[in-house]
Amino acid sequence: MASPFATLPPELLLHVFSLASNHRPTAVALSLVSHWVRNHVERNLYHTVSLSSSRSLVAFITSLNSKPHAFAHNLVKRLSITALGPISNIDEVLRRCTGVTSLVCGFSVPSYLHCARSLKQPVAPPEITTFRLPITPREQLLIALACRDGIDMSIISPLVTHLRIQLTPATTFENVARLRELSHLTHLAITYRHGLYGNVNSIREMIKPVLEEGRLKILVIHLTGAGSEAHRKEIEEWRTGFTLEDIDSTSTSTQKYLGCLPRTLIIAKRATPAVLLQWEQGDDIWAL
Q1: How many CB atoms lie within 10 A of CB 169?
Q2: Can you tell me the distance from the alpha carbon of 171 to that of 156, in angstroms, rounded to the nearest whole number?
Q3: What's the DSSP call for residue 263?
Q4: What was the pLDDT predicted at 114?
Q5: Based on the number of CB atoms within 10 Å of its own CB, is 73 exposed (0-12), middle (13-18) or buried (19 or more)?
Q6: CA 154 remoteness from chain centre
Q7: Beta bridge partners of 4
Q8: pLDDT value at residue 136
């Protein structure tokens, strides 16, 4: 019996494949049907890439080696790297996926910078050599190992507009204050553990230089740690300080406007452990 698809116009088939390939497992299955089908579902298949292990890193690079030179630049738009290494493979992926607009970094930044600088073989000493990411995403999330040793501006795109960072014991006031150098930054999310710096005022002082630049539209505070009552009290503390105009408040979140022009909307809420999953699913992690 002839396949019912044989009678359908190619344009309709492509439309069906395009819709079906929005579901990643389906896209993978469709890519095995034929070369013709694979060529038309690859755009969705490679649009969002999440590399969480050394095996996935190696497999991804192997896949790119069989593609045209501009393939990764044209198709990979959202990239997450939470694999520990090999660092040289992470550097290779970043150098090939130059069209990425959203980047999640979960690897060791000092190790990556050491590797990247070694590969570039700069003529000047490393301490005076300026290094920048080979890509310029507009959205960037620094999670896990990427923040363990503090915030290094070398790993942040100078064109970033939406940035999420995590405060750790290694994060300094100077680390955070340097975020004001990001002239395009309009959305900033900060995650920190309850009690990390003693009180809310310390966090406020840390981010004050960034707020004073007057470019931030939204500041989101994500509070982690156990104890709902402790969280409620600390979230409540974000209602005081600065010149704030009350917008909305619940037991789990607070929304305030910072009294400056343009006004900065400050949102404080309990952190969700599923931020990476939300990113992978394409959810708007900046939604209020």
Answers
A1: 9
A2: 15
A3: P
A4: 84
A5: middle
A6: 15
A7: none
A8: 92
> Given 3-state DSSP classes, what are the helix, strand and coil percentages for the chain, each rounded to the nearest 5?
40, 20, 40
Strands (E), the chain: 48-51, 78-81, 102-105, 139-142, 162-166, 187-193, 218-224, 244-249, 253-258, 264-270
What pLDDT shows up at residue 254?
A: 47
pTM for the structure as a whole:
0.80
Tell me the CB-side half-sphere exposure of residue 2, using CA atoms within 13 A: 5
CB atoms within 10 A of CB 27: 21
Note whether 46 and 75 are within 8 A (CB). Answer: yes
Q: Which two tokens stand for residue 236?
A: 């409540």
One-letter amino acid for residue 232 of the chain = R
| pLDDT given for residue 261 in this prediction | 45
pLDDT at 248: 41
Residue 5's pLDDT is 59
Low pLDDT (below 70) residues in the chain: 1-41, 119-131, 198, 226-228, 230, 239-262, 288
Q: How far apart are CA 91 and CA 94, in angstroms?
A: 5
The closest alpha carbon to 44, from 59, 34, 29, belongs to 29
Structural tokens at position 80: 């997450």
User: Which tokens in the block code for residue 136?
Assistant: 């310029």
Tokens standing for residue 97: 């996926």
DSSP designation for 190: E
Axis crossing angle, helix 109-120 with helix 87-96, rounded to the nearest 10: 70
The predicted structure's pLDDT at residue 178: 93
What is the C-alpha to C-alpha distance for residues 46 and 27, in angstroms, rounded to an integer?
10
Q: What gap in Å lies between CA 177 and CA 265, rounded to an integer?
A: 19
**In the Cβ-directed half-sphere of 202, how many Cα atoms lie within 13 Å?**
14
DSSP letters spanning 66-87? TS-TTHHHHH--EEEE-----H
